[in-house]
Amino acid sequence: MAGTHRILTQPINHDVAWLLHVSARVLSGDRLYVDIVEVNPPLIVWVGIPIVIIEGITGIPRTLLFPAFVALAATISLLACYNLLRGIIPDIYRETFIVVMAVALFVVPGASSGQREHLMLIMSLPYMMACAARARGIAPTHPWLIGLAAGLGFAIKPHFLLAPVLLEGWLMAQTRRVWSGTIAVAATVLGYGVATLILTPQYLPMMSRLGPTYMAAGTTFAESLLQWRSLVVGTIVVLALASRKSNDLQKVLGIATFAWLVMAVLQMKKFYWAYHYLPALAGALMLSTVALIGILSTRRFLRLTVVYGVMIGLIAVADVVGRPGSKDTRWWQIANVKQAIQGERALILSRGLSSAWPAVTYANAEWNFAFPSIWSAGTPEGLRFVAARAVAALQAQPTIVLVPDAERWDPMADLLRDSVFRDAWASYYQTDSIIGYRVYRRH
Fold first, then answer.
1. What gap in Å lies between CA 359 and CA 280, rounded to an integer?
2. Omega prior to 358 cis, within 30 of 0
3. 128-185 pLDDT per residue, tens
4. Neighbours of 295 (CB within 10 A)
5. Number of DSSP helices (H) and strands (E) in the chain, helices first
6. Nearest to residue 385, comparing CAs of 340, 429, 424, 435?
7. Cα–Cα distances in Å, from 268 out to 217, 219, 220, 265?
8. Global confidence as pTM
9. Residue 393 in contact with residue 341, Cβ under 8 Å?
């Protein structure tokens, strides 16, 4: 209940707000990767379309519907895992482990609730429990449903597929059998891939253009590997898998957590993209718990409990240390934007998603152009002024423009170098400032 309350009462994060906006645009007839600039494969946009449809029918805002969907999906996932855990861990510890899983799904995500990594984790956990059951010779129930859900989760981003590839390889070596749920996973991913090529053939060409700009926001491999989260999760994986008494569930979670850690490290994103590490952190928490359950029956209880207790503590410390709250749009920012706009037609001219979204959604500001922000105005040179011209080409110029004043890169200095934007901007003057933004109004 506490986790559900947290999901429902915190503002949706900037990525979720933008992607739901894209879903609405697609539903209204805009073409993804043609009329809308986006680097994500289309599945996450398609997932948001039913939310937008329900919003239109019921009048319930998407800012409430989507968190409710996430909470419901997490609850169903936990119920499925509870049933699948029969015979995998002692019944006396099953409820304790489910509580830890609930913490991983409801609490650990924090402001990243609803991110693509979070959705993948929710949809794939029953598959993980089924893998542990298969390793023990237990036939999981509802294999096609488990495989379909996991396949959709893994398909959200291509690199999510590393975990099932490693797990299925390990299980094939163990059992020499092909599970019907595995066929469901493969069929779902393959079907989605074909649908992507047919329905959105522009995705790959757009990614080839935007890829260098997107990757420019990254860091080095060494810095990514030496982050707090990488070191803590890596240590837990090594300790858990090196144990001679690792059980099947421990091995499954160890392999999956290793895959999730590799996935996060190789993206080489700076520390404030904490959500990339969400599956690895959640996996490390669950892995430590399973290891502790196994330790309870050994004479090494005290020594190893201290080791894993320290590891779990470090997970929490790492997440607090590495999560800069200033990057997330909070309720006070949304309230300030609402007060500045007061129902007028407005645009937030921001390079970063977090400064524009979800304030645009909560303040009911219009967003008529193709970009979530003007992050593409920089490198490479060919995209330098694309955003400037997109803003200037709006059919009806917004009455108010809000420019974040806390960004390391001032968008105005670069955008004003473009003559088209400069002519459009000549009709604006700064009226005042609110916390976090400079306010400009048209003459």
1. 29
2. yes
3. 999 999 999 998 999 999 999 999 999 999 999 999 999 999 999 988 889 999 999 9
4. 19
5. 21, 4
6. 424
7. 9, 5, 6, 5
8. 0.86
9. no
